[in-house]
Amino acid sequence: MADADALARLRQFVSEGESPAPAGAKQATTTATEPFKNDAAALSSNGESSALGVSFLDGGVPNFSSWPNEPIPLISPEISTNGVEVLTVNTEALAMLRRIPVAVAVLAVSGLYRTGKSSLLNWLVDPTINAAYDLNTTSAPAKADTESKDVEAAPPGATDSASILGSGFAVGATVQRCTRGIWIWGRPRAVTLRDGSVGALLVLDTEGLGGLESEGRYDARIFALATLLCSTLAYNSLGTIDEKAIGSLSFIAELSRNIKVTGEEDGNSSNSSDKSTESSQSSGKRQGRDAAADAGLQKFFPEFCWIVRDFALELVTEDGEPMTSDQYLEAALQPQAGFDASTVERNAIRRAVTSYFSTRRTVTMVPW
Amino acid sequence: MDFFFLVIQRNGFLSRLKYSLIRQLNYMFFGSQPWFFASKCRLSPSPIVQVRPLSDERRLQKVDEVPFDELRPEFRRDFALLQDALLSRPLPKTLGAASNRSSGNNSSSGRPLTGPMYATLVEEYARAVSGPSGVPVIATAWESVAAQEVAAAAAEAAQQHANALVALGADAPPGHYDNADVAFNSSTAGDDKSTDATAMDNRDESGAGVALSPSASTFLPRDQAEGAAAHARAYATCLTLFDARADGSAAASARQALEATMTAAFKDWSTRNAAASQRASQQVLSQLYTKSGLAALEALPTHDVSAETATGGAAGVVAGDKTNGSETVASSEGNLSGGGGAAVEDAKHPLADPKEGPALVARLFGQLTAEFNQIAFGSDSSSSSSSSLGPRASAELAAFLAVKWPLLSARCAAAAHAAQETEAAKLDAMLADTQRRIAAAETRDGARNGDAAAKASEVSALRLEVAKLGAQADGTRARQAVLEQQRVEAQKRASDLTLAAEEAQQETERLAEDLRRAKNEAADLEKERALLQDRLEAIPAYEPPPAACCALQ
Question: Across the interface, which of A102, A231, A314 has its CB nearest the CB of B114?
């Protein structure tokens, strides 16, 4: 099949993408994208036959077991011809996406750089760890109930565990960000969606935020893209949800500047400098507009799941009563008193989180 | 005033004991102002379970090389919860309310995105982010997705509709019905082509069989009502399908285009179906026509005898060629046409009979019509098989009958006329012969009449003679009586006269002698009279001439 060739070229592409030559960046992009034009053409041309190449198992479950069990770049930062860094879409990834015949659920993991997002994702996509959630693995129903208690025993049905090691989302131990842009796991996971229908779960890994080489605008754009592209946004953090953690969510407050619901609101929200010079008497109006914009954005925004990884986390209320992790998050998102600049800013962030993400959850974990 | 107890530990941990103590102190000093307390102290909750990190820092850095099973149990326990939160029944990515202005698209929100739609969304957002403004506009992206989905939905719906029509019956491969047209018009030329067609198309190996049972093939023609029903079904289904997928501003016009496309597709299908129906009907008719022996019967004896034999020979050649081409029909067909050929050779062709001919033609066409209807519309018993020759079957049958029936009837009439003419000539000859015989009989009759007259005169002469003899006999009897009297007198005198007795005796003896002679003579005469009487009766009465002769005259 052409899949083998595609896979080989994909691997080549991945290895090229990981070590971009700064001097020949332009050349690298051309060599990196050029073959993929052909590849995408080949994919789409035999896509007529392989568009239905996704075979279906019993109950309309698509069988993705032949798809590449490895990450594929979805959106990569590249230097365009006029020296501007642009985000380009990997056409091969798009071609693969177009072959998914069912509804998709998209899980994106974001978070500050060097917080181990990719490691977490590698475990999440590993079918040997969580076969219970994959309709493509036959042993799923038997494991579903015992999964939480019986994690030690690897599911016997899963066989390709070896592919995980060494070919997962890039994990690094340096301060360099390992993941550039947004990557997607090449093999969708056949799952039962919330409405009970059969769907495909896509897993996105995003570039860590706030790295040394980053600039805020780039981070905000990546985060905005991830937010727009997923149906569940998992925010991974180390340590408790403290003021610093809240403060690190500043790019959420900036979402409204990086995303517009309609083209009309362009003039109002994007150049806020004009806004401030315009008048102060319209501050109330602006508030209302912001609220409306928030409400508009909220409809398109994903579920928000905060993954709190901390060793010493006891979930108790102020009265010392135990509380759930969700209550913990809601308490942390309560506006705090104070009028100093940082408190105001953090309260703005809190408000942004609560207004943009109407569905919020928290999962607390000890680190590995 | 803004005073409170704040305990900050370097490690950030606060034991439960200290936690409660500080809470109590704050309460005592400042009353219930829990938000102060909460905001300052909540952030350092005290640990109950102190989890020891992986001691090996190098292992921690290369955590992905550590098998998952060797990670700390607490982490694996928590990871199971994370899995449950993220992987169990995930929320599908849905198409948001794309345009607020062009409202009425309320149905759009909550519509799950499929792979292609999601790919478009990715493309749109990435393009927008890299664009001049660098800010993606949700509505624009959704509109693109919706537009693309509309196009895809329309294309798929149209394709599905087309598939439904194809499933109804595809066009026959070229040559499938080729022989039909030719066979319909003339038999000899068509069969060369039919053998060509069978050579070209293996599926047509038993092309006649296929055509005679069209239900076995997936080719057109199909029943038009069935097609219309399937079209209506597919039309509704596809529109529902389209409505379920399509959304946005482009949906309405795309729907109209889709409707037009589907209608056009059905119209095209109907046209092709009608054409195929015409071809198939004609083929079946021509085959039935041949099968019924009508081709041979068509070669009716005309006034030209040489032409008749030539056509009969041609029909024989036809049958021979057919055996090469289609074996299923050929055997019976050959027999039938052979029988037809025999019938042709028979001088008294059944169709040439002025009385039976039309009835025979009617019966043959009736049978052909019945068989055709059986194939075209199926019988009630086997209605399950949707054998159909399509919408044109009736029309083609009517056209066929309109062409063939008068043709054959006219041939029949002509043949009957010719046969009658020969019959009349034959009758004329017979009449002349009979008249000749009558004339002969008449001459014979005349002779026989003369003979009878002669016999009658003879009879009358004999009668006259009999009467004469009768009178003579009477005279003789009278004389006999006189003589008897004389004898009596003589005897008396003899008795009286003894002397003269002897003389008298002598006289008496002489007289007796005379009497005896007269008696003999009278007996002879009587005998002759009886003879004559017999002869008179023996002469036959006069016979009139035979009735047949009279009738002929």
Answer: A102
ipTM of the complex: 0.74
What's the pLDDT band for B18 if we cut at 50, 70, 90? low
Other beta carbons less than 10 A from residue A235's beta carbon: 25
- pLDDT at res. B139: 82
Q: B434 in a domain, yes or no?
A: yes
Range of the domain at A127: 58-145+154-269+288-365
In chain B, how many domains are there?
Answer: 3
Domain assignment present for B238: no
Same domain? For B502 and B394 the reply is no
> Which residues in chain A touch residue B83, judged by CB atoms under 8 angstroms apart?
124, 129-130, 132-133, 147
The closest alpha carbon to B93, from B116, B72, B77, B62, belongs to B116
User: Could you tell me how far CA B193 lies from the centroid of its own chain?
Assistant: 24
Q: What is the pLDDT of residue A305?
A: 92
Q: What is the pLDDT of residue A294?
A: 62
Q: Can you tell me the mean pLDDT for A193-215?
A: 81
Residue A235 near residue A305, CB atoms below 8 Å: yes
pLDDT at residue A342 greater than cutoff 60: yes
CB contact under 8 A, A365 and B82: yes
| Helical ranges in chain A per DSSP H | 2-18, 25-45, 47-50, 91-98, 117-125, 140-144, 216-229, 243-247, 250-253, 255-258, 266-269, 272-278, 283-300, 325-332, 341-356
Distance of alpha carbon B299 from the chain centroid: 25
Given an 8 Å threshold on Cβ–Cβ distance, is A133 in contact with B83?
A: yes
Residue A293 placed within a domain: yes
Q: How far apart are CA A231 and CA B110, in angstroms?
A: 12
Per DSSP, the three-state class of A146 is: coil
Tokens linked to A63: 């069988």
Together in a domain, B398 and B478: no
Specify the pLDDT at position A44.
37
- B430 shares its domain with B525: yes
Among chain B residues, the shortest Cα distance to A194 is held by B89
Number of domains forming the structure of chain A: 1
Show the DSSP H helices in B378-392 as ranges: none
CATH number of the domain that residue A126 is part of = 3.40.50.300
Residue to substitute from A314, A315, A319, A339, interface B, most B β-carbons within 10 A? A314
Of B46, B77, B78, the CB nearest to A314: B46
- pLDDT of B206 reads 37
A49 lies in some domain = no
* Residue B274 structure tokens: 């009608």
Is pLDDT at B317 greater than 50 in this prediction?
no
Within a domain: B128: no
User: Tokens 């589907």 identify what position?
Assistant: B262
B430 and B404 within one domain: no
Classify each residue of B336-365 as buried b or exposed e, where b means 16 or more C-beta atoms within 10 Å of its C-beta: bbeebbebbeeeebebbbeeebbebbeebb
Report pTM: 0.56
Q: Which domain holds residue B504?
A: 426-552
The answer to the question of residue B82 being in a domain is no
pLDDT of residue A201: 92
Residue A85 lies in a domain: yes
Q: Are residues B395 and B512 in the same domain?
A: no
User: In the structure, what pLDDT confidence band is assigned to residue A149 with cuts at 50, 70 and 90?
Assistant: very low
Query: Which chain A residue has its CA at the smallest distance from B138's CA?
Result: A261
Q: Higher model confidence: residue B136 or residue A150?
A: B136
**Most confident region among A36-45, A150-159, B67-76, B197-206 by mean pLDDT:** B67-76
**Mean pLDDT score across all residues of chain B:** 69
Residue after which a domain boundary falls, among B418, B448, B474: B418
Q: Is residue A123 part of a domain?
A: yes
In chain B, which residue's Cα lies nearest the Cα of A364?
B78
**What's the rounded Cα separation, in Å, for the pair A352 and A335?**
11
